[in-house]
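Lab meeting notes turned into a lecture example. A postdoc, R.K., suggested we walk through two folding results consecutively so the class can see how the record format repeats. The first protein's sequence and structure tokens come next.
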Amino acid sequence: MTAHEILGRQVAMPVQIRKATAFMAMYSVPTSAAQRLIDPTGLEILQYRPGRGLCGLVFVDYVDGDLGPYNEFGVVFMVRDHRTRGGSVPGDLRALATGGSGALIHQLPVDGDFTLAAGRGIWGFPKVLAEFEADHASDVKRASVSQDGQLIVDLTVKRGFRAPGAAKSTTMQAYSHIDAITRCTSWDMNPDGVRTRLGGAEVTLGSHPIADELRSLGLPRRALMTTSIPDLKMTFGEATAV
């Protein structure tokens, strides 16, 4: 077992998240616009249909974990495995179905100093400090994130339908990029009580540069689907530069 020293504390690997709640909205975005945003990573946007990629807006409340309690907002793009270049739509769909795709964590505001230092220092996640208002407990989920008084995103997700097949452990490759280094981290998830539906999201974009990035992708628009997870356990392994 390895460990990292973060702000005078030892963080043993792998990091365990014993209790979290999350909700998200997934959007169809133009491949070309999304690719321009992630070009510095060297990764490729996965296409679920010709000319269209997938972008997720995710709010997570970390209730009990090795990095302490905190809130997080992520802008996530589905990408091809870094060892796969110039894929096709059929190949991308197979990768989505079989777990062969990856998730690039493009933006990651949080509200805790320790998780910020750990996220950047251990995995190279692009964490920045921000302010949150979040309601993960109600049937209709709602959260907003701001930085220095500028609204980034306000997201509301309506109640979905139980998705029993989604309540299983999955492993995904999480990609990150800061300081000109792209990293890959094994990310194990064990969700319970998953609810999902087509559409079901309302998003308001603010005046922050992250909001401007999302506008460049054509948001706000109707979400492809929304998902809420009232009970989520996760494990993060070591990061590897790619």
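The second example is placed directly after the first for contrast:
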Amino acid sequence: MSSARRWTGGIVAAIAGITLVMGAAPAQAQEKPGALTARVTDLQPGAADLSSDAGGAGNDGSGNGNSGNGDGSESEAAGKDSTGAGSESAQVGSAKAGLGASDPAPTQTPKKTQPKKKTLYCSYLDGRKGVKAQQVIEVRQTSTSRADVYLCSRKGDRYVRDNTSYTGHLGYNGVTSKKREGDGKTPAGVFWMRGGFGTSKNPGLDHQKWTTVTKDHVWVDGKASKAQGYNTMQRRSKGYRGEALHQTGPYKYAQVIGYNEERTPGKGSAIFLHKHTASGTTAGCVSLSEKSLVKTLKWQKSADVQMVIH
């Protein structure tokens, strides 16, 4: 065999080997066809060497052409492999996107719900004779001269407490159902709340008459008769005598409790809801701290208000 044939056979074998290697390792087939052609060209001798044997050159030329077709097929396959690699990359990207989409949504911290306030009832008022107002101030004695005070509003057939309670002071001799003038006791029972007065202007008792008192104002008490104005507000300048109402301490704000509205002499007079005194007791009234008193006055939404003392 001539050296040209041997050389050409070596080229074919080399190309076949490259084809097998590329077929076995698709990842390496991504080399550009141009680079492969360059390598084959490097293996070829000069054109004069190949033309020295005409017959061999014809057969080998045919084989070489087949090899060229094979090389083209390999390039196409390499392109397909590249496309496949691209598709694989796209699939990986899709898989990553899929993982992101399938991730659970961030857990939201549930909002804290405020516990529902328990409804408190002024049970003592249920079915109580004479209790019929829309709003009732309940004064419940807890010791001789102290009481818990509740603000109660009618809801259907019951009275509901407004979730507050105030500390009240009573007469220094306690509570009685048989009140007498000067006994130092707070009368027990059911009474309508009336107008307000004080040395200061009205703090918010909007549904009752308010009197800003002066040194001329008195509340007729003691041994006065009904004809003499017993248990009413009057003026010194008109000849009346009684308890001075211009007292900046307890009577800064006050409201009349409608006790003894028949004005029966000796049965008791001047029963008010007012600010605490320095002694912590009263002569028969009900007192609250200034803050609690103002809230109670503002709480009254109409003139339909009673006080129950027990």
